[in-house]
Amino acid sequence: MDTPTSSSAQSIAEQILYNVSEGIFAVDTNYNITIFNSILEKMLGLSKESVIGKPFDKIISVESKTKEPIDLKQYFFKTQALFDVILKGPTQNYYVNIKFSGLKTETNTAECLITMSDTTKEISLDKAKDDFLALASHELFTPLTIIKSYLWMLNTNQDGILNEKQAEYANKAYHSTETLISMVSDMLNVSRLEQGRLTFNCKAGKIVATVQEALKGFDIKAKEKNINLKFDISQIHTELDAFYDEEKLRGCIVNYLANAIKFTKEGGVTIKIETDTDFVKISVTDTGVGVSDKDRSKLFSKFGKGETSYNKIVESGGNGLGLYIVKIYVEAMGGQVGYNSDGDFKGSTFWLTVPKHTVLHD
Question: What is the pTM of this model?
Answer without folding.
Answer: 0.58
